[in-house]
Amino acid sequence: MSKKIHKVAAIGGDGIGVEVVDACLEVLDALAERDGGFEFQVENFDWSTERYKRTGEFMPKDGADQLRAFDAILFGAVGAPDVPDHLTLWGLRLAICQPLDQYANVRPTRVLPGIQSPLRHVNKDELDWVIVRENSEGEYAGQGGRSHPGLPLEIATDVSIFTRAGIERIMRFAFKLAQSRPRKFLTVVTKSNAQRHGMVLWDQIAAEVAKEFPDVTWDKMLVDAMTVRMVMNPASLDTIVATNLHADILSDLAAALSGSIGVAPTANLNPERETPSMFEPIHGSAFDITGKGVANPVATFWTAAMMMEHLGEKPAAARLMQAVETVTADPSLHTPDLGGKATTRMVTDAVIAAIRGRN
Ligand code: NAI
Ligand code: MG
């Protein structure tokens, strides 16, 4: 029988993004070798801030279109100390997510074995969430501008865009995801007391879509109160859906509560599979530790497990997560962000050994 081929575009980007993506490609090779039923065809892209400094562009003009030929995209991080963050984010990451309509950003959070949550007394079953971030509109739609530069009446606007179509599709995705999890429980986060148009539309559409999912229980939270609930009562949450900005912030909090931003994964999905989806760690390019060989690769390995699921390779995804959890359970394999002394190399080698079944 011929092997299934998965075409993966690898974009390390900047800083530790390159380090963790390189480590992840080694892990993917080991996974394919062990499985035997599929192989990866990986193409590496040097799209980055370094390329921007050299050519004036983070990626070619038809970059997003080039990616359509792939089954999935593995992304590191983009951002450099000497280029403004709004240029790097809009020049590469959003320049891929938006044209490829990866509208569902999915961020699972669990406390992995061996890792300590900063929340005292929380045991690992009490913090098991999936945050769904609306990934195409809201506060990051790109509408707005600046006028009268330098004058006292200089003005800058960022307009939050909320459409019925955009809210309905993310709400349906979130209810479906909640339905697929044992607790069948969804929390819809808004700020509909202060933001009285777009967020009220969110609440209204949540109630409409809920009728299609009678077996899913749901509740509503205002985003500020949600931060309190996440810290004080983590076991009361399961699946969570929120706008682009709100979920961006909540998911960094979630990552911290799970022990480190170095373990937190993300999938940017086009659920209809009209375009390739993109998988990345939540963290950025971390200039403070770039080149030191101590970046925690676990977030990228976990995101690769999500990629394997998406590609239909469920046993390989489960094997990878099991290998990751075997490794996190051993404190001598914790990188400095988790309070340990291990290097990216050590963690990567240990995960590969666990995949091969040698530990
Ligand atoms: P960051 O996530 O890069 O770093 C925050 C802190 O967490 C740093 O102390 C860093 O050392 C630590 N950290 C992050 N990932 C780690 C890992 N895998 N292992 C160990 N420690 C880790 O966020 P920061 O400092 O706000 O941003 C740095 C640059 O990255 C900026 O240019 C920012 O715009 C960009 N960025 C890019 C993202 C993306 O491409 N998706 C996401 C977040 C930030
Ligand atoms: Mg963020």
UniProtKB/TrEMBL annotation:
<comment type="pathway">
    <text>Carbohydrate acid metabolism; tartrate degradation; 2-hydroxy-3-oxosuccinate from L-tartrate: step 1/1.</text>
</comment>
<dbReference type="InterPro" id="IPR011829">
    <property type="entry name" value="TTC_DH"/>
</dbReference>
<dbReference type="InterPro" id="IPR050501">
    <property type="entry name" value="ICDH/IPMDH"/>
</dbReference>
<comment type="pathway">
    <text>Carbohydrate acid metabolism; tartrate degradation; 2-hydroxy-3-oxosuccinate from meso-tartrate: step 1/1.</text>
</comment>
<dbReference type="GO" id="GO:0050319">
    <property type="term" value="F:tartrate decarboxylase activity"/>
</dbReference>
<dbReference type="GO" id="GO:0051287">
    <property type="term" value="F:NAD binding"/>
</dbReference>
<dbReference type="GO" id="GO:0000287">
    <property type="term" value="F:magnesium ion binding"/>
</dbReference>
<dbReference type="Pfam" id="PF00180">
    <property type="entry name" value="Iso_dh"/>
</dbReference>
<comment type="function">
    <text>Has multiple catalytic activities. Apart from catalyzing the oxidation of (+)-tartrate to oxaloglycolate, also converts meso-tartrate to D-glycerate and catalyzes the oxidative decarboxylation of D-malate to pyruvate.</text>
</comment>
<keyword id="KW-0479">Metal-binding</keyword>
<keyword id="KW-0520">NAD</keyword>
<dbReference type="InterPro" id="IPR024084">
    <property type="entry name" value="IsoPropMal-DH-like_dom"/>
</dbReference>
<feature type="domain" description="Isopropylmalate dehydrogenase-like">
    <location>
        <begin position="7"/>
        <end position="351"/>
    </location>
</feature>
<protein>
    <recommendedName>
        <fullName>D-malate dehydrogenase [decarboxylating]</fullName>
        <ecNumber>1.1.1.83</ecNumber>
        <ecNumber>1.1.1.93</ecNumber>
        <ecNumber>4.1.1.73</ecNumber>
    </recommendedName>
</protein>
<dbReference type="GO" id="GO:0046553">
    <property type="term" value="F:D-malate dehydrogenase (decarboxylating) (NAD+) activity"/>
</dbReference>
<dbReference type="GO" id="GO:0009027">
    <property type="term" value="F:tartrate dehydrogenase activity"/>
</dbReference>
<dbReference type="InterPro" id="IPR019818">
    <property type="entry name" value="IsoCit/isopropylmalate_DH_CS"/>
</dbReference>
<keyword id="KW-0464">Manganese</keyword>
<keyword id="KW-0560">Oxidoreductase</keyword>
<comment type="similarity">
    <text>Belongs to the isocitrate and isopropylmalate dehydrogenases family.</text>
</comment>
